[in-house]
Design goal:
It is a single chain. This protein is mainly alpha-helical and about 70 residues long. The chain has one domain. Helix content is about 85%, strand content about 0%. It has helices at about 5-10, 15-30, 30-45, 50-70. The model has no long low-confidence stretch (mean pLDDT about 90).
């Protein structure tokens, strides 16, 4: 069994909530992840007008509060 096969076998046995943490960790190890995030940010910066931006910010905050409250 290869290293990748062994890792995949172990991942398949983990619950989804743990897989989210694993994915974040793996992405943090990949130097291209930061480049991709920056590229996406630069490509979308300024695509919303002020009203759209404020509405989007409020929606994100509301969803974050809802999810955070559910996790506690």
């Amino acid at each position: 069994m290869t290293v990748v096969e062994s890792i995949l076998r172990d991942l398949n046995e983990l619950p989804n909530r743990v897989l989210v943490d694993v994915a974040r960790y793996v992405h943090s190890l990949n130097p291209k992840s930061k480049e991709r995030r920056l590229s996406a940010l630069l490509a979308t910066a300024g695509c919303m007008d002020t009203d759209e931006g404020e509405s989007f910010e409020l929606a994100v905050k509301a969803e974050a509060n809802r999810v955070h409250g559910r996790l506690q």
